[in-house]
Design brief:
The chain is built from 7 helices and 2 strands. By secondary structure, the chain is mainly alpha-helical. It folds into 2 domains: 62 residues, no CATH class; 44 residues, no CATH class. Strands 1-2 form a two-stranded antiparallel sheet. A hairpin with a 2-residue loop joins strand 1 and strand 2. Helix 5 runs antiparallel to helix 6. 10% of the residues are buried.
Length: 118
């Protein structure tokens, strides 16, 4: 939640909160799969019929790693591991998203046992 909160408030909101939120997700995670976009109830408000984000503001694509490392000062290795974990956990396409079991085996959890550092 910290990352999402920090990312959202990093930008100046001249657009609706929803427009800005979707734009931030596209900037950090890349474009959504068209098949996913077309299932959304409010897709026509935010996306073209081809599943591309309607221009709400100028997008500034930035990898999650770069955002964590450059903007928030996470150490290089820590930013790599955290961004990799979050990208796998937040994947919008269910078939590509890691399961909870897979995520618990991720490098981010190395050195922990039952949620406690060892």
């Amino acid at each position: 939640m910290y990352v999402c909160h920090a990312v959202y408030y990093y930008y100046c909101a001249r657009y609706t909160r929803n427009e800005d939120h979707v734009a931030l997700m596209v900037e950090i995670m890349g474009n959504f799969d068209r098949s996913f976009v077309l299932t959304g109830k409010h897709r026509k408000m935010y996306f073209t019929k081809n599943g591309v984000l309607k221009p709400a503001r100028k997008l500034r694509p930035c990898s999650l790693f770069k955002f964590l490392h450059s903007k928030f000062g996470f150490p290089h290795e820590e930013a790599l591991v955290i961004s990799d974990f979050l990208e796998k956990a937040l994947q919008l396409t269910p078939a590509k998203r890691w399961t909870a079991r897979q995520l618990l085996q991720h490098d981010w959890f190395k050195g922990t046992r039952n949620g406690d550092l060892i």
